[in-house]
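In keeping with the milestone schedule agreed at the kick-off meeting, the structural modelling team has produced records for the first pair of proteins. Each record is given below as a sequence line and a structure-token line. The laboratory manager (R.T.) confirmed that both were archived under the project's standard naming scheme.
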Amino acid sequence: MHFTTMAKPTGSLCNMNCSYCYYLHADSSQDSGTLCMSDDVLEAYIRSCCEACEGDEISFTWHGGEPTLAGIPFFEKAVALQKKYLPSGRHTVNAIQTNGLLIDDAWCRFFRDNHFEIGLSIDGTRMIHDMYRSDAGGADTYGKVRNALYCLEKHGIRPDLLCTVTAETAASARAVYDTLKNYHTGWIQFIPIVRRGEDGSVTEDSVTPQAYGRFLKTIFREWIGHDLGKVNVQLFAETALMLAGKPATVCWLAETCGNILIVEKDGSVFACDHFVDRDHRLGNLCTTPLRKLAESPFQKQFGENKKNLCRSCRECPWLPLCYGCCPKDRFSVNEDGEKQYYLCEGMKMYFEEAVPALKAAMEMSTQGKSQKEIMRHFLRK
């Protein structure tokens, strides 16, 4: 079984207080009482990854909370341990997801010198970002995040931009997309926000299925008419990949899930970053090898459970492109009384718009058409 890990060196600790953050409310029963992963747990984690992971590349993804709160010395130790335990003939890749508040020249030099891949969270326009993403004291953060982006670029680092899609974001699709693409980083991910209150109802800041579909369609039309080959949008790239007959690289679009394990700061390992709770705790890597946890019957069943689909999903023509999407959000009850993905209608709207266009673009590419010619074709349409 191929698997990767996502480590949270400071657990859910963060210097921001985003209103939609699900990590802030994750079960903290696994916390060790320390603010950061200990040296012993860090060494056990890296050793276990190097022993377990297959292939030439061993990847480490650092998440949170906010992982930069662990400090540069923590990551210097991590890189040194990776070199210590790296098997001959293989190499490591480090990726970190950050809110950007602590990013300065020192961090950028460390990232550059150690070839870290950076994901930077920024919610499009200043107004929308500051509406949802305040710091721990309630202050606006857009200016600091934008400065972090400029600092990274000054050091030759082009971060991936991660933007959440809330109700407010969805209503401002063009403004959000234009703002992000004009940072010229080349890669954008849009992550829909779906939250439920204690009574099970969807919160007001969550994007609705219809609004999500309109959002994706608006951005797709702009992208294929103006930015093909210049900007990568994760969902569009994944759709094209699957249309070419290749498997999805992101878990929520894959046929099964469960191959991205979450490592908490005390070494506890969980089935998924959306299921950090007692029921989905696999064990602790300090006492059980990561591969054994990844290949446990519980985790295998967790991954296979993604195939438990309602009738409308099984009969849907778009099934090979989404496989029912993320199980976390399969709570919408359809006309048959079965549960399905809450944003299903929005995804259908997107596929109906994007799939014919992507197929046509791929066909024109095989005919030798340039990207400019392909974009002109869609602009005329």
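The second protein of the pair:
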Amino acid sequence: MSEKDMQELVGGFIQELRRGTIIIGVLSQLSEAQYGYSLVTVLEEKGIQVDPGTLYPLLRRLEKQGLLDSQWDTNEARPRKYYLLSELGKRVYEELCTEWERMSAGLQALIDSQRS
């Protein structure tokens, strides 16, 4: 396998890992109302790269599932839709965090056992 092929393979795996964690990242930032672009910026500042083309459909899906509430702010020159965790969203976020902690501890133990 060439170096280029290996890098493409690793890149695909990294993309899968990001896809699996983006929901927790997004939910973690919505205890206070945010609009899409501000959310992209905040996540980027914290080391989480999210493409707006991925984020906006995700926000709509999470809203449709009842995890987010939204409200339009038309006071600015450009109207913005703000998103906030719903009560269900808060409960789901806590469950996801618990599961993430369990999974990451298990994975870390596997990694550590192979590296020592």
